[in-house]
Amino acid sequence: MRRALVTGAAGQIGTELVQALRAELGSDRILATDLREPDADHPVVAGGPFQRLDCTDGDAMTRVTGSFGPDVVFHLAAILSAVGEAHPEKAYAVNMGGLVQVLEAARTNGYAVFTPSSIAAFGPGTPPDPTPQDTIQRPNTMYGVTKVAGELLCDYYHHRFGVDTRGLRYPGLISYSAPPGGGTTDYAVEIFHAALENGSYSCFLAPETQLDMMYMPDAVRAAMELMEADPTRLRHRNAFNITAMQLTPAQLAQALQARIPGFAVTYDPDPVRQAIADSWPRRLDDSAAREEWDWAPAYGLDEMVDDMLAHLGHPHTVDVPSG
Q1: pLDDT, tens digit, 9 for 90 and up, residues 42-90
Q2: Which residues are known to be catalytic?
Q3: Cβ distance 58 to 105 under 8 Å?
Q4: Beta strands in 200-285 (DSSP E)
Q5: What is the CATH architecture of 174-212+244-281+299-311?
Q6: Residues 6+ apart with CB under 8 A from 45
Q7: Does domain 4-171+216-241 have CATH number 3.40.50.720?
Q8: Running DSSP on this structure, what letter comes out for residue 131?
Q9: What Å distances lie between residue 64 and 28, 46, 57, CA to CA?
Q10: How many whole angstroms separate alpha carbon 116 and alpha carbon 17?
């Protein structure tokens, strides 16, 4: 990987991925793009080249990638699960329409494509604990439908046209650099800000709702490592299960309460997002990623909580016994 373009660069994943790519490859070799231009002090604008780009515009996608000459496009632009249920037609148009144009431009300009999939690609009929790499995928959300279709479309462009497509099924992601974007696991980011700003939080999921989760530095590193992996080892390409930790809201609340005495959490489950969460896996089997490109997470619950609080400006953390 020598030069990369990122769509949806101002989003939750893109903000940190762009910074990591620029640190590794050099600022001028990473073009950050998004439908809307963030403020001038936003990291993806302040740290290197940025260009407004509508990834559903095929002519623009072909023109920009042809001019910049990336060897990899990280296609992150998408409408997420909760927002997608409120606007399903828009979610389909953006998620599928953008992906098709990115893949079509790849045929012309010869770059590899990374596309994130999600635990949303599974559904209530999928074995939840653990969820195998290869299993039934019958999601009941528009976001999940677009993720399954996207996995298949990327496979098609690889087998039919030789495009080097690769992807990951991300669990819920926790980060400090950008606000969440309307997903079902947003509580795991919101709760940190609420703990530091208000001292209390009302969670929109039930306390014992277990979901697969990952800290953003692991998610970013996984994407970069996958695109550098030896293609002869890859059997699954689109897309690999990856995981780092399994959390419930109650477990995350307890970890924060150990570090922020007096922090109070209540639970008021939102019917839409609770139903989505209940249809998702409790634990992913990521053995294929471990075997095919040596995936391994670096952050568990305690390491993640301490690092999040440090970056959000909490003055100290406490030593929490493991086990």
Answers
A1: 999 999 999 999 999 999 999 999 999 999 999 999 998 888 999 999 9
A2: 143
A3: yes
A4: 200-203, 211-215, 240-241, 245-247, 264-267
A5: Alpha-Beta Complex (3.90)
A6: 32, 37, 38, 39
A7: yes
A8: B
A9: 15, 20, 11
A10: 12
Contact 209, 94 (CB under 8 A): no
pLDDT tens digit string along 244-282?
999 999 999 999 999 999 999 999 999 999 999 999 999
Domain spans, the chain: 4-171+216-241, 174-212+244-281+299-311
Residue 57 is classified by DSSP as -
Structure tokens at 264: 């109070």
Measured between alpha carbons, how far is 25 from 46 in angstroms, rounded to an integer?
16
Q: How far is CA 51 from the centre of its chain?
A: 21
Q: Which of 210, 236, 205 is nearest to 129 (CA)?
A: 210
The DSSP code sequence of 82-128 is: HHHHHSHHHHHHHHHHHHHHHHHHHHHH--EEEEEEEGGG--TTS--
- What length is written for the chain? 323
- pLDDT band at 314; cut points 50, 70, 90: confident
pLDDT band at 321 (very low <50, low <70, confident <90, very high): very low
* Cα 146 to chain centroid, rounded: 15
Q: Is the C-alpha dihedral spanning 8, 13, 14, 17 positive or negative?
A: negative
Distance CA 308, CA 303 (A): 9
